[in-house]
Amino acid sequence: MSELDRDLIPSADKNSTRLMVILHGLGDSMEGFRWLPPALNLPWLNYLLVNAPDPYYTGFSWYDFAGDSSSGIARSREHLGKLLDHLRESGFPTEQTILSGFSQGCLMTLETGFRYNHKLAGMVGLSGYVVSPESIIAELTEAGRKQHVLVTHGTRDPLIPFFEVKEMMSKLIATGLDLTWKEFEKAHTSIAGEEELHVIRDFIKRCFPA
After folding, report:
1. For residue 68, what pLDDT is reported?
2. Which of 4, 11, 29, 74 is the most exposed place for a label (fewest CB within 10 A)?
3. Domains of the chain: which residue ranges?
4. Could you tell me the pTM of the whole model?
């Protein structure tokens, strides 16, 4: 079982096992994304808000971006794998679970999902990146090759350069991965209003066919 702090927001349908796991960015917490479930307005979807493991000022961090991030990323990836295993054992099938995240949470979503041994319903990455497309391609699991992925990024992002991320995602797409890339005129913010919400909402609906 994962040691990560988390909070489940149940769907209006008490029988629903469809779930979206939400990972915050650097210095934030699960509290920063409590607005998202009502904004998406998908009453049949459960949500799990998750805190990263490391304290960072008034919030939390998934890894140390200022130093050697590899060990922190590997550790958080292990935490998230255990969390997904626990959710599956608790009645939330992995194939009905979307893993999503913003910034550092986006990186953790992609780094975890492509290496995970079970197919997710989908993955949503917002304003993030990957450490190395080549490493992900080399370490893809059989399930990872089949993941459905949406990645969005802002053309005016001053923290995670747009064109660098676009090149990374293009390399992943070129290998045949089912990755949809969407660009928005925004800075380093989680979601660019209703325009981006609409894209995310439609992707989620496609992940859960009737």
Report:
1. 67
2. 74
3. 6-207
4. 0.96
